[in-house]
Amino acid sequence: MNYLRLKTSSHQGFTLIEVIATLVAVGILAAFFMHFMGTALDHSWKSVELVAGEAEAQGKLDEIIAYYTSKINDNPDTALATVFSQYSGDATMQYIKFNTVSGDEEADASGDHWTLKVTVEAPGHNLTAILTKSRTDAGDPKVKY
Asked: Counting beta carbons within 10 angstroms of the beta carbon of residue 44, is it exposed (0 to 12), middle (13 to 18) or buried (19 or more)?
């Protein structure tokens, strides 16, 4: 007895048209992806530059505050003037006072010089600290920084 053998064909792999269609679709998606990633990579250096500049400015501001802290511990009466003369080239410094009515800051033309506004420029924005004559006597407790 001869058995009737049915020859079944099984599809092994992909047809040429399926491979070409897949490659075209992947190519289109890759082109969009590269376009958007290329734009992001072109502008990514700006973020690094901003962060590096801000870190440098923060370091300079920390250095000024540490110097002020050491000087106010030595002599509270001359600490602000010493900081002003030592770091005036590295930062913008201005003696200020606050208006008691509006609360706005004004230049201190009175000569009291109890408050010093220190501004260090950083890319994108500036860092500002307000230094005050917080100790009135050399016998006051030391300021720690």
From this structure: exposed
